UniProtKB/TrEMBL annotation:
This is Isocitrate dehydrogenase (NAD+). Keywords: Oxidoreductase. It comes from Pseudidiomarina indica. Transmembrane segments: none annotated. Belongs to the isocitrate and isopropylmalate dehydrogenases family. Residues 4-330 form the Isopropylmalate dehydrogenase-like domain. NCBIfam families: PRK08997.1. One of its GO terms (biological process) is tricarboxylic acid cycle. One of its GO terms (molecular function) is isocitrate dehydrogenase (NAD+) activity. It comes from the Bacteria. Gene3D superfamilies: Isopropylmalate Dehydrogenase.
Amino acid sequence: MSTTITVIPGDGIGPDIIDATLKILDKAGCNFTYEYADAGLSALEKTGELLPQATLDAIARNPATLKGPLTTPVGEGFTSINVSLRKHFNLYANLRPVKSFKGTQARYEDIDIITIRENTEGMYSGLGQVVSDDGQEAQAVSQITRQGAERIVRFAYELARREGRKKVTAVHKANILKSTSGLFLKVAREIAAEYPDIQSEEMIVDAVCMKLVMNPEQFDVIVTTNLFGDILSDLCAGLVGGLGLAPGANIGDQSAIFEAVHGSAPDIAGKNLANPTSVILGAIQMLEYLGMQDHAKRILAAVTDVIASGDRTTRDLGGTGGTTEFTQAIIERL
Ligand code: NAI
Ligand code: MG
């Protein structure tokens, strides 16, 4: 039986790298049926809305969504579509794995870190945003709930067990942010005690930044609140060679959206220059989520091989290929 997934090609380089990814999924024998939906600038042009109801329905209907990057028009009062999607579907867990690939010019070789970022609370709760009438003072509310902290920390430990990972590092700033980060840390300690088989560690966020740069191999699973997770996961992407190799999954209890961490790259759109790897890695996360571990492994092996061999990769990876040559090379390996 064929599983239906929702596909949002998105804006800019989105349609090209999504198309490349679907070709790879098909070649690997995933046998998906695709239900296409629009969001972002392309949806605005077609329907007058950035996030049409039909798209929300399609995401809700199917077990997983693969999404290209979306352009949110700047300065026209639009809220970020990605933030809207996270809120609408309560996608509370943002999983951002980074892994070293041979054949890139990254600084480190043995990195395999996954940042699990709480995706709905913290400094991004959207609560209490005030700017004084004279524009001289601004405030926003950071919100941590026991329920929100518990479910994300538990998610991290369950993932560690499932993936055979050894250690979970809870990242906080409880020494200064005593109420919010304090509650997060308290809950993290309680949950850690339930998982004696996994090594638990806690670390203050600024120290984590330093250690990630000096000795990133010591990290395995990082679990943290929204703002810290946003920043640390980009730092981690930089350790392995940047945006072209960084996928992200947004997971809730009912829905899941898989994507690249990067944006729609309007500067290279339509030029056959985009590196499709981040979206392909997002699709691999999707396969793992859907229980298709064998397909995930085969595609990852093919991508790893092509990047290691070097010549047909895209320019950001040091190669001379375009999106289509790179994709074709992966398809040939499969
Ligand atoms: P960007 O990530 O689109 O581009 C930053 C730089 O990285 C550019 O030089 C671009 O050419 C390069 N780049 C990005 N992806 C690449 C790839 N796959 N292969 C090769 N080079 C790549 O960030 P920027 O320019 O700040 O944002 C452009 C648009 O994307 C904005 O409208 C922004 O709102 C949107 N955006 C959407 C995201 C999403 O839907 N998840 C995430 C981030 C930004
Ligand atoms: Mg970010």
